[in-house]
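Weekly structure sync - notes
Attendees: PM, LS, DV (DV joined late)
Agenda: review two folding runs queued last week.

Item 1: First target. Sequence and structure tokens pasted below for the record.
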Amino acid sequence: MEPDDQSLLGNTRISPWGGDSTDEPNYTPGNIAGDHDPRHGNPYFNVNLFSQEPLGQQGNSQRRFFHGPGINNTDLALLKDVKIREAMSAEFRAEFFNAFNHAQFYGEYTVDGNFDDGPGSFGVVGGDNGGRVGQLAVKFNF
């Protein structure tokens, strides 16, 4: 969705990538905590505290006031070398990425903080970066 220009400043393209604006919504102080389990599909924070700014005015919400869940990633590798003869060996490897299978919300999968995206998108986690991945390998050296 294109950014709004409620402030009537005409600054909806302030970055080379477009889509940015200095317009911010109004923020009503209150409990910002929302549903922190993105599997429910509910907003990550209380979106009812935000409203459209009046025409011709800037909203009172700070830019970048909120960030979504952090990254909790652990990669693990196990390796075993087995000597068969003097010049022969076998190497067994097991590698796991995101070994403890924690949800990864970053990049395009973070919380949607764009008020202009409207209900159903604003404040909702867009997805995750996938679960645990494992791979096994055997290598014969001679």
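Item 2: Second target, run right after the first with the same settings.
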Amino acid sequence: MYGAINAMPYSSSHADSAAGPKGCGVNDDFFAELSGFDNFRGITEPGNYQPAPDDWSVVHTDVVDSTQAIAGGHYKDVNMISVASIVCAQRVVGDLKFPFVFGGDGATMLVPQRFQNDVLAALLGLQSIARSRLNLDIRVGAVNVGELAADGHPVRVAKHHLSAAQNIAILEGAGLEEAERRIRAHPETYRHEVSPEEDTDLSGLSCRWKPVPSQRGRVVSLIMQTRSTRSGLYQELLERLDQVIGPGLDNVNPIGAPWMSYRSILDCIRDERRYYQGFSRDWFNRVVEIVFAVALFKYRFPGIGFDPHAYKRQLRTHSDFRKYDNVLRMTLDCSTSEIDAIRRLCDAYYEAGELYYGLHENDSALMTCFLNGTGEGEHLHFVDATDGGYTTAASQLKRQLAGDNAGGS
């Protein structure tokens, strides 16, 4: 079901069978054709954003009661299901490039509306897997971008280059929160009466690396949401973080090949067995994949036509350790003194009425992977602190919001 080291590019045959029109839509290349930026501070430049097409949809997923699930020790499953929702959408749309942001306990995606119902069907299939095999539930829904824009809730998209071959989406606009609000308030309406897909395709999804230990002290997941309309506030925050973090933000990515290690064959089989029913051919193929992957990465068997060392080096430049979707999210490897400085900085902006924030720290980072292949640009790695970094940080931020709302400020 997930995690092939030699995952093949997805065939578009499923997408061609979608209920929507066959062939390419007028705006299908919207994200692929966006010009991107290399410096992460480009998220603060309005000129880097373009309005999302009206004939696309905001698709949102989140794990219900994720804080409770994480408190019960299921943080890895929460992360996996969140990344799985992105994989579901990719498997439906085939080779089409679309924007998405991983949030720790869910994901926000934009897809052409002609794929909307097929994506929802796949996600509802994932919902069934989560309920029956992981005792988790996920909320699923989609709202048309044009509908949101007409009601005064725009959605804008930018592209950040992680490397010459890989990039991630940057999202902003009131339409993101409004889409989530509508999906939460009217779940049946924004599921569009779609039936779950019976055989949800999650090939290419994996979580076989051990937690990545901090090299500098502690791994922190930091979420920052401005509460002020002051122009340039996010840019100022990024500059201040660069000042208080010794090596600078560009250099505290927790992912790095020298200190990463692979899990054992038995651990991988125990984990992945939960997602299969019976001893099918698919499960047999999965076991073969696990054996080859562990041989390559744990026991360093030579790869035939594949360089595992090059792949490991690419992990750092193919990871989403920082992102933005109206909220700044970062997972960083910092010293304890730097963490103290980050807290003082955030507290100062919070007391000044300009920022809400949440910060979770742990000894290691968790990486969940999505592979369409093993070449450069064919894989992407989603990063969070272990023990549910983003979800725990978001809970702190929500308490700040709730406290201010209760106080009438």
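Discussion on item 2: DSSP finds twelve helices and 15 strands in the chain.
Action: LS to circulate a short write-up before next sync.
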